[in-house]
Amino acid sequence: MLLIRYWTCFCDTLSLNLNEEGDKNAQLGIDHPDAYVMKPQREGGGNNIWEDEMKEKLTSLVGDPARAQYILMKRINAPTRRNKIVGRSGVMSDEIDTVSEFGCFSVYCTDENGSLRENKVVGPSSEQNLPKKTKEVLVSE
């Protein structure tokens, strides 16, 4: 029961590998660009591809092995709250719509044989983002 509750916290992620499943998922993104976001499979964030830009990118990657470098994720339509962004220097914004994101930083290390060496949570993370597809991220200080 706990595992089921745990999995309900995550959004669907869909492979974009060059196979039948990846082709089907890419078509979902092309047909429903409002319902998905295309994400590169690398660290860093801020490189997501949204809506019409995603549709164009998926169309341009038909048959291209580079498509496998991305995943498609069901879009989260999180509630917004009016908020002022505050940092070390004081108030940094007027009252604006924001979306809060909370998570954790973790460490996952394997050796050259793929044997697990470290897998642990190392701290919390908190961000205030602007709603929808804004590329700016306001990180709490």
Structural class by sheet pairing and helices: alpha+beta
Tell me the total number of β-strands.
Answer: 9
Secondary-structure element order, as H and E? Answer: HEHEHEEEEEEE
Subunit arrangement of the protein: single chain
Report the radius of gyration as a whole number of Å: 18 Å
Low-confidence stretches: 133-141
* Number of discrete helical segments: 3
Strand order in space, largest sheet: 4-7-8-9
How does the major sheet shape up? 4 strands, antiparallel
Residue-averaged pLDDT, rounded? 84
Globally, the shape reads: globular
Distance between the termini: 37 Å
- Amount of beta strand: 35-45%
Helical amount: 10-25%
Q: Could you explain how this protein is built, in words?
A:
- 20% of the residues lie in helices and 37% in strands.
- The protein is α+β, with helices and mostly antiparallel strands.
- It has a four-stranded antiparallel sheet with strand order 4-7-8-9, with no helix packed on it. Strands 1-3-2 form a three-stranded antiparallel sheet, covered by helices on one side. Strands 5-6 form a two-stranded antiparallel sheet.
- The radius of gyration is 18 Å and the shape is globular.
